[in-house]
Design brief:
two-stranded antiparallel sheet, disordered N terminus
């Protein structure tokens, strides 16, 4: 006879078949299992939702599973329940999603509509003096600067051009989103930003040096956005963990990010009203087949895998990458020298990030 219980941490109804009074089936995977309240001494009644009436006891009956199997069952169950919970809370507006910077969105929109000149873009950026300082610092980095440094916003706009200034503003505003957390995923978000910024810089370099210079700024922004769903999910998970009192294994968090980031990334870009081309990249980044007709997508997929080779990852991976064999290499007509130089660029990015963190 099944006993109906309530998962106190997730506030989701589940059913357990209890073969004996000291065992329960895996629920949300937080610590061991739960002694259910109600139903008499034999534990065959209806459990009532009450956090104060939940007592941690035995995880699973040895008769059901043991060791690694027990952990796998708990993690799989936890992941399923967590997926439902995340979707419900996001759909209902209970979780606060990342909010994109108004200035960056306005600049991006007006540049795409060809409505900005150098003077106009400078006036918009000057509304945020912290943004001005961050933009000048990035404009003078080795990846954007010329032979001499720029000392004013207008000088940067003249030297770099409107679209490149807009992409730098986009990058600065993105970095703010990744550094806003003070919760348990702060280190994860820092690592994710390091990967994201490396992909964006690598994609921009690849476009500028392989015959697609006209796509350099678009590729840079696409690189910044390719894993945006992971940012959204980590923010949602921090909120849920805090409000529900959950404990999640790294494996469960990694699986959630991998399984859900494309869909949630596309939803966030829709919320930000960004072009469909970026949503296409987010949705098809992990496709098995290469789309040789989408040049920017090919570049992002290639640089993303090159980052695996250079150990600039946001999550642990045992993936074996042979960059030369990727179909994107042929689609972009890249040489072995192009690939070698791309890896050198990524190594430089990694070195700068490590030096900045030291």
């Amino acid at each position: 006879m099944p006993t109906t219980g309530v998962c106190a941490c997730a506030k989701l109804d589940v059913e357990w078949n209890l073969p004996g009074e000291d065992s329960v089936a895996p629920w949300f995977g937080v610590d061991p299992a739960v002694r259910l309240i109600g139903g008499g001494e034999g534990m065959r009644g209806t459990a009532r939702r009450a956090a104060s009436c939940v007592q941690v006891i035995n995880p699973l009956s040895p008769a059901l599973c043991s060791g690694a199997d027990r952990k796998d069952n708990i993690d799989m169950s936890q992941q399923r329940e967590l997926t439902v919970l995340i979707n419900r809370k996001i759909d209902s507006g209970e979780v606060e999603l990342p909010v994109f910077d108004d200035i960056a969105l306005r600049i991006n929109r007006e540049v795409n509509e060809n409505r900005l000149d150098a003077e106009h873009i400078c006036k918009i950026i000057e509304e945020d003096q912290v943004l001005v300082a961050d933009l000048l610092r990035m404009a003078n980095s080795s990846f954007f600067s010329g032979l001499s440094s720029v000392s004013s916003l207008r000088e940067a706009a003249v030297r770099l051009g409107i679209r490149q200034i807009a992409s730098i503003v986009f990058s600065v505003s993105q970095k703010r989103l990744y550094s806003a957390s003070r919760g348990m995923f702060k280190a994860r978000l820092t690592q994710l930003w390091q990967h994201t910024s490396a992909v964006s810089i690598g994609a921009r370099w690849l476009a500028a040096n392989s015959g697609y210079r006209n796509l350099a700024d678009e590729s840079f922004v696409a690189g910044l956005l390719h894993d945006i769903g992971k940012l959204s999910l980590l923010c949602a998970l921090e909120d849920i963990i805090s409000s529900e009192g959950l404990e999640l294994s790294d494996e469960v968090v990694n699986n959630i990010l991998q399984d859900m980031h494309s869909e949630h990334g596309a939803q966030l870009l829709t919320l930000w009203n960004l072009p469909e081309s970026y949503k296409t990249i987010v949705l098809h980044l992990d496709d098995e087949a290469c789309d040789p007709h989408n040049v920017v997508l090919c570049m992002i997929r290639l640089v993303d895998k090159a980052c695996v080779l250079e150990d600039i990852n946001d999550m642990p991976t045992d993936e074996v990458v042979i960059l030369e064999n990727m179909p994107e290499v042929a689609a972009l007509s890249l040489s072995d020298r192009d690939l070698a130089e791309l890896r050198l660029v990524l190594q430089e990015v990694k070195g700068e990030r490590q030096a900045a963190a030291a």
